[in-house]
Amino acid sequence: MSDSPLGVSRDVGVIIVAGGSGTRTGGEELKQFRWVAGKPMLLHSVQTFMDRPDVGMVVCVLPQRYAGDPPPWLFQCDVDRLLVSVGGRTRSESVANGLDDLPDEADIVLVHDAARPLVDAATIDRVVAGVRGGTSTIAALPVVDTLKEVGEDGLIVRTVDRDGLWRAQTPQGFPRQLLVDAHRRASVEHISATDDAALCERLGIPVRVVRGSERALKVTEPGDFNRVDAMFGVAE
Fold first, then answer.
1. pLDDT, tens digit, for every residue of 160-171?
2. Domains in the chain: ranges and CATH
3. Alpha-carbon span 147 to 90, nearest angstrom
């Protein structure tokens, strides 16, 4: 990956995980392909990361049946900085596949969920700055609600102390070799995780938290599409 036209080294590679079926949002169309806030959900993230001069490649990890024939709107982006990879059986496998396809020049890797279409440039800046400082870094928000542990019968078991608890978001950023090693260990030990920070944590690798954004909500339920539409264009 060469330098950008602005003379900035393009040493950041981005893996956008869009390999899930998205069944909880309803409908037959993949949620990452559905339109929200003016364009297909996946396209929001791809274009946001490609706006960065330090990003040399964006890898979109898609379900196998779409990887060979991606939707045409995806090619509205800079095709020279776009790759499509095949999703795995789990999120961890999908990220590992994306890692394999990143060019060697990507010394910093950002992993982002396509289901968070409104991630903002300031959050990405904070994550990248943390990794450039030598520490794996994720976006997150402190928990502000009272947390209850609830049993299968629907009754409260206890109130959980929320002090020091944060809600993990994406992007999550890592020195490339560190993330490769964490995924390699996880594969050998048949470990999967809901995010990449957890794969590092289990190896004792420090992971820093920087403030994320309320706008970067994860589209999970049908009503979340309306919530994102309402947030679009509204300054934080």
1. 999 999 999 999
2. 12-139+166-230 (3.90.550.10)
3. 28
